[in-house]
Amino acid sequence: MLGSITDVLMTLITNLYVSTGLLGIALAMAIESCCIPLPSEIVMPIAGIMIAQGKLLPGMNPFVSIFLVGLAGAIGCLLGSMLAYAIGYKGGRPLMLKYGRYVLISQHDADKADAFFKRWGSPTAFFSRLLPVVRTYISLPAGIAKMPFVRFCIYSFLGSLPWCLILAYLGYILGDHIEELSPIFHSLDVVILVVLIVLIVLYVWRHVKNDRKARAEHAALAAQNGHAPEFAQPVAPAAGMPMQQSWNQPQPQQFQPSQRPPQFPQQPPQSRP
Fold first, then answer.
1. Handedness of CA 160, 63, 22, 7 (dihedral sign)
2. C-beta of residue 129 within 8 angstroms of C-beta of residue 159
3. Alpha-carbon distances, residue 114 vs 108, 141, 148, 214, 221 (angstroms)
4. How confident is the model at residue 2 (pLDDT cuts 50, 70, 90)?
5. Residue range 126-141, pLDDT digits in tens
6. Angle of CA points 86, 89, 90, to nearest 5°
7. In this structure, is residue 123 part of a structural domain?
8. Residue 5 · residue 189 · CB < 8 Å
9. Phi-psi map region of 159: left, alpha, beta (phi>0 left; psi -120 to 50 alpha)
10. How many CB atoms lie within 10 A of CB 123?
11. Residue 268 covered by a domain
């Protein structure tokens, strides 16, 4: 049962990669990097398996193929990260949390990425690309904190490239032994299916639980302090970055040199009795 499902899924992804080549890999990684849960741990190894089977970039040196696949994945990561950065830069946390729940972005995930970014600053855009969960959402707090765009792009690309290369290479090694492993997978169809269902249910349950808990904590803190919830506040700029006008702060009114600010009449002094 699971074997047939896996075969159908592999056929769909294989056809996508065969028809679109490196562009399809870049597109899949861009989707993952703009905070849509499409795990790179699946996307990149499948490309490596296809290289080993001669279905992707046939006739080319396998190590060159792995490098090109990893490069395409890193470019896709950069493009998706740029979109997430722009969302954080323009809309901030309120926009992210308002619509993020539809793509499984929880308050808990946002708090985790924010804390990581606040602690390590700009280099977070590099190191977070090698960490699960955080790597998917780190672009949003980077945009909210107004991290310099060029620096963000450089760190994101350099951090994504080794990650994509490692996953593609692991898929290539697995592809060399796929024929020996296939009978084992088919014999464990029911067990693997049950484990996958349990893991998915636990993931969704944990996601909803943590999101509700984090939102309740923010609401309680806001009620205690008498101001808007914390997720409505901007992330403080990381160390070494200039302080800039945040997205939810009032903009000062500017006057031309030939203009004078409006004069307000002074109230007459009140006589004492």
1. negative
2. yes
3. 10, 6, 17, 13, 17
4. very low
5. 887 877 766 777 788 7
6. 85
7. yes
8. no
9. alpha
10. 15
11. no
Rounded distance between C-alpha atoms, residue 87 and residue 113, angstroms: 15
pTM of full prediction above 0.90: no
- At residue 80, the pLDDT reads 94
If you write DSSP's letter for every residue of 57-119 in order, what string do you get? Answer: STTS-HHHHHHHHHHHHHHHHHHHHHHHHHHHHHHHHHHHHHHHGGGT--HHHHHHHHHHHHH
Report, as an integer, the average pLDDT of 87-107: 71
Instruction: Report the sign of the C-alpha dihedral through residues 33, 36, 48, 16, in that order.
Output: negative
Maximum average pLDDT range among 103-107, 131-135, 225-229, 235-239: 131-135
Apex 130 CA angle, 94 and 77, nearest 5: 65
* pLDDT at residue 24 greater than cutoff 70: yes
Structural domain that includes position 110: 2-232
Query: Domains in the chain: how many in total?
Result: 1
Does residue 42 belong to any structural domain of this protein?
yes
Return the amino acid letter for 171: G
Kindly tell me if the per-residue pLDDT of 64 is higher than 80.
Answer: yes
The answer to whether position 239 is within a domain reads no
Per DSSP, helices labelled H in the chain are 2-20, 22-33, 40-52, 62-100, 107-120, 124-127, 134-137, 139-144, 149-176, 178-187, 189-225
Residue 206: half-sphere exposure toward Cβ, Cα within 13 Å? 7
Residue 66: pLDDT band by 50, 70, 90 thresholds?
Answer: very high
